[in-house]
């Protein structure tokens, strides 16, 4: 059960990561920092709302607003003014660019919010407790699982069942071809990246009540979500879901013995199925 | 540059550095020692990077070299630093030779992620091993050189000289290797691996050997570091440590081995000064600097004097 709760927010974060990788072919190391920023902004906003006397369910609104705000500010800014400069270069160069971004954001967060941890545990009590098979669980955790499922379905639906989603899929398939068919590829890139940022920030915002928000949370998140999308296959939504559940359960089972079991799983998957557990191996292109 | 000129040049630089070291204050001596030990690890990354791959897990071999040397000191009672360093290098080389062929099958991001995963596994194992000090690591006292205990200012200078000579020799060997047929093949692989295969060379074996060389250099750097630092802990294998090595390699660019040491020294200087004056923003400065280098000097600071050859092949033509 703990594993599922862990898996749910991990899935949301990894979903953003895998979406950005699928569309832009960027493995975004700074994704963890965006998660952290989401958590910080949410913590600040919830506190602010509370000081206005808007407690209770308004806190949820505050967290959502935080995620939207972070996405709308950080997404276009990063994509348009930074990443775009490097599209013509190797994937590896882009990896390094996002690593540089990670270093910058990490310290920017420390500058803005300081190094002391923030606690906003109030929304955590919002949904009461749920009795389940003679055990008590916090309702918020169930809400989180629901949120993760909703996010997953929404993204899947938008990609596979709507017109704009199909345009995105076309861009993933061939950047050049869709561009010559009149698709505004730059716009698709920006929207996809912003959506990825949003998912990271949502993950951060809604876990903020469960953890102490402090420097260093981004590092652990990014490594684990890498593991998730590697296990599930880069750029695959279903893969991210299954990867998140595997990692969540593995972590719950092994956290006291050996939390690094996750990396062993990841290494094993890379060695035997480098395309991910549930993806067919792509034909080698010349 | 002919090979003879290269060797003579390297010998000249080492001699000058050894003389300069006599005049340096002790803190700076220590800093240069660390910069040389870390720089040689980045040289290893460079060897891999010339083939178009970036290893985010050099912390692994760095830690193996360090732990092998440190444990030989505490468990086996070997105190001679040269022997310790040899043991560290050898241990890392063995590991590199074991995982190298495995890693060589992967390209691009997969290679980076797999190296990252391996180093994080090592980090996790080290943290959970009370026998080697767990997350605190352990200290080792200063070693001996030819039976003389390395203490005080003379000891510091001896370690400095050792670091300069050993990394200098290793770096010269690497520079010679990059000019050899096999070394040039690495460049061709970056250009187009598939064509290299068609021409009858195994990309995998070239990359596996490159990784083993990088592992040896990483082990050398790790062993040198703990001999000078006297302390080892699992963060040696943590991915941020690996990231720093990558940072230095990018900063230096793949054209000049000398540039790596300059970049490494610059990093150590910036780190120690900014720890003093602005402890919370030095990563930020580092990130901005890295971006600027990638943007404006894609071939690294080495390209400033090593001649402006064309930047490494760009575009998505590297094979999947």
Key terms:
heterodimer, A: 286 residues, mainly alpha, ABC transporter involved in vitamin B12 uptake, BtuC, two-stranded antiparallel ribbon, 11 helices, globular, disordered C terminus, B: 320 residues, two-stranded antiparallel sheet
What do these coordinates show?
Chain A has 286 residues and is mainly alpha-helical. Chain A has a single domain (2-272), classed as Orthogonal Bundle (ABC transporter involved in vitamin B12 uptake, BtuC). Chain A has eleven helices and two strands; from the N terminus they run H-H-H-H-E-E-H-H-H-H-H-H-H. Chain A has a two-stranded antiparallel ribbon with strand order 1-2. In chain A, strand 1 (129-132) and strand 2 (135-138) form a beta hairpin. In chain A, helix 1 (2-24) runs parallel beside helix 5, helix 1 packs antiparallel against helix 8 (185-207) and helix 1 packs antiparallel against helix 10 (237-254). Chain B is mainly alpha-helical. In chain B, strand 2 and strand 3 form a beta hairpin. Chain B has helices spanning 3-23, 26-49, 58-76, 81-103, 108-127, 152-179, 181-198, 203-229, 239-252, 257-277, 282-296; strands spanning 138-139, 144-145, 148-149, 231-232. Chain B has one domain. In chain B, helix 6 packs antiparallel against helix 8. At the A-B interface, helix 4, helix 9 and helix 11 of A face helix 5, helix 9 and helix 11 of B.
CA-atom Rg of chain B in angstroms? 19 Å
User: What low-confidence regions of chain B span 5 or more consecutive residues with pLDDT below 50?
Assistant: 308-320
H and E order of chain A: HHHHEEHHHHHHH
How many strands, which pairing sense, and closed or not: the largest β-sheet of chain A? 2 strands, antiparallel
How would a crystallographer describe the biggest sheet of chain B?
A: 2 strands, antiparallel
* Count of individual beta strands of chain B: 4
Structural class of chain B comes to mainly alpha
CATH fold-level label of chain A = ABC transporter involved in vitamin B12 uptake, BtuC
Output the number of helix runs of chain B: 11
